[in-house]
Amino acid sequence: MSGDQLENREVNFDPFESKDGELGKAERIVLEIGADIKEGKIQEGYRLPSERDLAARFGVSRMTARSALQTLLNEELIVSYAGRGYFVAGIPDREASTRDRIQEYHGEIIDDETILSDELQVSGSFYEYMKRLGREPRDEFLEQPALVPASEEVTEHLQLSSKELVLKRYRLQLADNIPYRLIESYYPSELFQEILTKPIDHKPLFKWLQDRHGITAKQVKEVLIARPANSYESDRLGISLCAPVVDLERTVRTDTGRIIEWARITASAKLYAFRYEYDIRLKQSMREY
Amino acid sequence: MSGDQLENREVNFDPFESKDGELGKAERIVLEIGADIKEGKIQEGYRLPSERDLAARFGVSRMTARSALQTLLNEELIVSYAGRGYFVAGIPDREASTRDRIQEYHGEIIDDETILSDELQVSGSFYEYMKRLGREPRDEFLEQPALVPASEEVTEHLQLSSKELVLKRYRLQLADNIPYRLIESYYPSELFQEILTKPIDHKPLFKWLQDRHGITAKQVKEVLIARPANSYESDRLGISLCAPVVDLERTVRTDTGRIIEWARITASAKLYAFRYEYDIRLKQSMREY
DNA sequence: GAGTGGTCTAGACCACTAT
DNA sequence: TAGTGGTCTAGACCACTCC
User: Fold this and answer.
1) Per-residue pLDDT tens digits for B117-139
2) What is the pTM assigned to this prediction?
3) B86 touches strand C (CB under 7 A)
């Protein structure tokens, strides 16, 4: 497939080149180095020539070489460290990522099909799952969990009758000190406020809900969008400014349809794949066609 | 919520500023203009001062002002047109996007809850759905549909016994001439090869399969990742180089478990939201806890 | 023709890394 | 101390848009 894609790419670079007559100097550098990385000529971790070296080799100014390197940074083909250099970082990871890297499925982090089938059954334990993978998970609370007045957005999503107090938690989740995601979550206060005084530690919240109140979390609705990180998120998640993040809004209902959580998760996109399975239910009109 | 987020942002800009002592000149411009846009002081479509103007106003060189504008471009807060200028383009769109913009759900494009519940039942008709929205959909075939030898990747995903011929379609899908997504899809040749000689036009493929062969598409598995666009994709989808795209790999099975499609969709992230609903199935051990 | 973004140049200083 | 990326400067030419 990567072979096929390369063919397509080349097919379409020709008209592109002829359309613009000539490529810019920076663009030529991007294509050359980019191709070397994609073809594996330069391997992951390998250090690239310095900006000044590249400028000399390609006969351009340092700013032009730098601009090419910035493009490769944006494409996440390389990474840079001030005072050290540029390093190949990516394509091998990304190729494998669709199946093999850390993945989220139904709110759980998984890393392969076997675990997937297990994890399908669980909900709400970033902590426990990372533990199982041998990683060291950690919650960093960016605000003290507290009862706060529901904003309009929260009122709507939790379907509250009026602006009530809700339990808000806002935290950064990490594993092995790598930031995975920001989570801002809201819960109806009457069910959850006691966890403010009696911490439940790392027991999954919905497990606690089941045990304490006999209420079962059941239906989940998730909406995902991908967008570039803003400066706050790039700072918190340790990614570059325009690196993609995935915003996941999740609404959780009980088996009786009562909404018990609304959360917005902002995840570092490169650490995540999201898997979903569902059945096609053809419309009656289509069956009859 | 946007109020809350702003508070967080400010809380975290202080340590950031003190940590680095002072911000760079470009960064100061980014923060100032970025804040103006986010707060709505400059409205969507509004034209920003030119690079030379900004440079003069902030007392910096044109390249510094330009670098700040590039950052804002990366954050998708502004757009630029050569020979015309920079224009505010974003936050209002993005705020509304989670619920209101064009969305994909189960392979269908939807735009609100009502249509969502309808579209849940259908599969495989970007064309028909766009029609229903009053948009003009179009398929641009980037390769002639053909029987091709299955690559290793395709062999694996279609679970073929050996490297056989498969039907490949590779196309760009647009609506109102706006590029939405690249689709590369593979099908077992024995079921689908006749569409090469007898085009089915815009009849949904799985509807045709049901009518022609009495075979019902049923189970779908989707894996989503978000990543920056490469140069080929940014060219085809009309987006900037590091703008996010969503890679969606989809496997479709019949009601008997036979795989009848494997596809990789590369979608312009800013045009899509993805919705999924599912039920939590607690593990036995957790129920017993 | 005046103004615009896109590209490029040949320098410069800084903070940081490695040795 | 030498080399690195990060930032910035003050110019320049080009293709394009708008009038």
Assistant:
1) 233 333 345 776 667 667 788 88
2) 0.75
3) yes
